[in-house]
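The data are quoted verbatim here:
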Amino acid sequence: MIECQMFRILPRRCNCTGGDSVWKQHIINGSVRQCYGQRNSCKVLNVTCPGNSACSSNGPGFSQCLCKPSWHGYKCLVKSGFPWLLIFAPVGGSTVVLIVVILLIQRRSVTPESHIKVTRMKEMITNGKKLLIVEQILLFGTLENV
């Protein structure tokens, strides 16, 4: 099996691109310098990338930090996607609190005396038609007008 390796042929006076440490082997043969087997620049140069990225060799002696999926921006600090939880958690929480407050306020405004009046009126009226009218008036809260 033939293995293809990256190599450079340069004049003798020139160093291997990226430095000799980036190549596995460099041979000087007459007036020519041959550089064989490019090494991973991230490992040789000990490149450290931010937490949301990974190092990638970008040619002899060069490296780049590539952002992991769903991360982008400067030093891969920006997370992609719509922040569903950040938007809807406060909206949902405040809605529940508002409903509870409204129910408590409405509950306090109901007095026991109005309930007694309705009970007495129902006991006094025996005709089914008038009883229906009293219930409809109670539904709309205009019991005092009767």
In short: The two ends are 104 Å apart (CA to CA). The helical segments are 41-44, 84-109, 112-124, 128-140. The first helix runs from residue 41 to 44.
